[in-house]
Design goal:
Layout lengths: L3 E3 L5 H7 L1 E5 L8 E10 L8 E7 L9 E6 L3 H8 L2 H7 L1 E4 L9 H11 L3 H29 L16
Antiparallel strand pairs: 1-3, 2-3, 3-4, 4-5, 5-6
């Protein structure tokens, strides 16, 4: 079964270096603090959903998820064609709160904060790059698993994993 997996589980150093956060002070709709946007990607190597799930967290509240946001960067037409369901396509396109995952009273304000952060095109491109890295890593590991799980031919030959470059 496939699910959404944190980016940091495959790319710890890169995630640590490139996870976006926003510091909030003096807003009426959010407590003061630094909010981190943790990226989760689909771990189905065949899936090409072109979206990220964002868990909004803070360092001061441990593993508490303050909001869960879907962000799909492709057009509505892309998601309608890919999902074959107009309602699901609307929920996958752009930034929306994910109703299947944890939310808090602050989730709507955090969604607006995330939409503000998305105005930075370099951040949007970073999310797309992280998606491609994650999917590429999944596919390469899947190929290695498939190759190594095949029985050796004639008992003498064995498939070898490609050497790192």
């Amino acid at each position: 079964m496939y699910g959404m997996v944190p980016f940091y589980t495959r790319f710890w150093e890169l995630a640590f270096k490139e996870t976006r956060s926003a510091t909030v002070r003096g807003r009426k709709d959010l407590p003061d603090g630094e909010y981190g946007f943790l990226e989760l990607y689909c771990d189905d190597p065949k899936c090409d959903c072109r979206r990220v799930l964002i868990d909004v967290v803070t360092a001061t509240t441990g593993s508490k998820i303050w909001a869960t946001i879907n962000y799909g960067w492709e057009s509505l037409e892309f998601y309608e064609k890919w999902m074959r369901n107009k309602e699901s396509a609307r929920e996958s396109c752009g930034a929306t709160l994910d109703m299947l995952n944890p939310q808090t009273e602050y989730s709507p304000a955090l969604l607006e904060l995330f939409k503000w952060v998305l105005q930075d095109q370099a951040y949007v491109e970073r999310l797309k790059r992280h998606y491609r890295l994650f999917k590429s890593d999944l596919r390469s590991k899947r190929k290695l698993t498939t190759r190594s799980s095949r029985p050796a031919r004639g008992g003498a030959e064995r498939d070898r994993a490609p050497s790192p470059q």
